[in-house]
Write a structure and sequence with these properties.
alpha+beta; Alpha-Beta Plaits; 4-stranded antiparallel sheet; Ubiquitin-like (UB roll); single chain
């Protein structure tokens, strides 16, 4: 509610009071002296007082409520405009990337990572990326440069990014050239065979057991082993898994994403009014910086840091494809890794009560079953002699 505190100056103040009563104007006397008095009236009553043709001098001592804010904005337009422009410029500067530093002594590797960062959208003088986009960039670089780095982290430091990484330590030359077989690390039905070197000794749709040779590193001529080589390739197979989930019927979660914004706010009494709408952001603790505080009125202008909060509400009893299946696949990938392809799935059992859902799902998955068996100590002469004795 808006109101005015007025100073009425003149003689015979009782006459002025009687005039206010006659006109039905509500007022409250705050102070009275011989030649003046101070009263408080509502905004609409103040407008009515201005219409009275009187010789009394009427001065505004103080404004209260919304009218105070309105008056402040009208009388300080330049300040408000400059503040808004300053905030916009400040926000622009704090969201730009002024430098990217790769913490690595190898200049060639630094150049590779800087080029990868630029390729995936993070470059000097560009806008900062969100927390989720930063993680995606890390994953893309790690996947692309899997042969040269084992780990990478992009850390935001003010208006800069610092990139830390761990180089992949390559096997020595002897180990890299060591002869080997490619064998199955688990049983399943072969779906794909990719062979670069070695002899393929299995075939598509064949059922194999753990340890079975898939691509041999032994080179034969008329059933006689003549040499050893390093089998190189990958074999994929169809594997069967059962995933069990126990879920609440209704799920609610509020999670901070790591994103934050610095916004300009006007505080009046105990309320804050943001000049930009950030529905998904909430106040952080101790992050309000006051840039202007009125000496008399309970009003201030602040820079306030807000953190993004992601709210999730899921009804697991509805929409299996959207709500339950992705969780089951995520659980499967946590166990097997991301290099799998779901071929099909079937719900085996589902039970539901008031607050929980229990479900068993059968998955057919194409998975890399490539494993290795060293042939370093394999004795060719001894093996050929054994074969000859068995055939004679």
């Amino acid at each position: 509610m808006s109101s005015y505190v007025l100073k009425i100056t003149g003689k015979r103040l009782d006459t002025f009071i009687m005039l206010l009563v006659k006109l039905g104007i509500s007022f409250k006397i705050l102070k009275r002296c011989k030649d003046y008095m101070i009263i408080e009236v509502l905004e609409e009553d103040y407008n009515n007082i201005l219409k009275i043709n009187t010789t009394y001098e009427i001065d505004i001592v103080k404004r209260k409520g919304l009218v105070s804010i309105t008056h402040f904005l009208k009388t300080r337009k330049l300040f408000v405009i400059v503040s808004l422009l300053g905030f916009a410029f400040f926000n622009l500067l704090t969201n730009l990337v002024f430098s990217i530093k790769v913490v690595e002594t190898d200049s060639e590797l630094r150049e590779i990572i800087l080029n990868d960062l630029e390729e995936f959208g993070l470059r000097k003088y560009s806008f900062k990326v969100s927390y989720n986009d930063k993680e995606k960039i890390e994953s893309k670089i790690l996947k692309k440069e899997k042969d040269i780095i084992e780990w990478i982290e992009i850390e935001e430091k003010g208006v800069s990014y610092e990139v830390k990484l761990i180089r992949r330590v390559k096997d020595d030359i002897e180990k890299e050239s060591e002869p080997r077989d490619i064998v199955a690390k688990k049983k399943g039905m072969v779906t794909r065979i990719i062979a670069e070197s070695g002899e393929v000794v299995t075939k598509k749709n064949a059922y194999v057991n753990q340890g079975d040779v898939l691509i041999s590193g032994l080179i034969r001529n008329n059933e006689i082993i003549v040499n050893k080589t390093r089998a190189i390739g990958k074999v994929y197979a169809e594997i069967w898994y059962k995933v069990s989930l126990s879920l609440p019927t209704n799920y609610h979660e509020e999670k901070k994403t790591g994103n934050n914004k610095t916004v300009l706010e006007i505080s009046f009494l105990s309320d804050d009014y943001s000049l930009t709408d950030f529905d998904k952001y909430e106040h952080s603790m101790d992050t309000k910086k006051i840039i202007y505080n009125h000496p008399l009125l309970p009003i201030s202008i602040n820079f306030t840091k807000k953190e993004e909060v992601k709210t999730t509400d899921i009804n697991f009893s509805e929409n299996y494809e959207k709500n339950i299946k992705p969780l089951a696949i995520e659980k499967l990938k946590a166990k097997l890794g991301n290099d799998i392809t779901v071929l099909s799935e079937k719900v085996l059992k589902k039970s539901e009560n008031a607050d929980r859902i229990d479900i068993d799902i059968f998955f057919k998955v194409e998975e890399d079953i490539t494993s290795y068996k060293s042939l370093k100590d394999f004795d060719i002469e001894k093996e050929n002699q054994k074969t000859e004795e068995e055939s004679s």
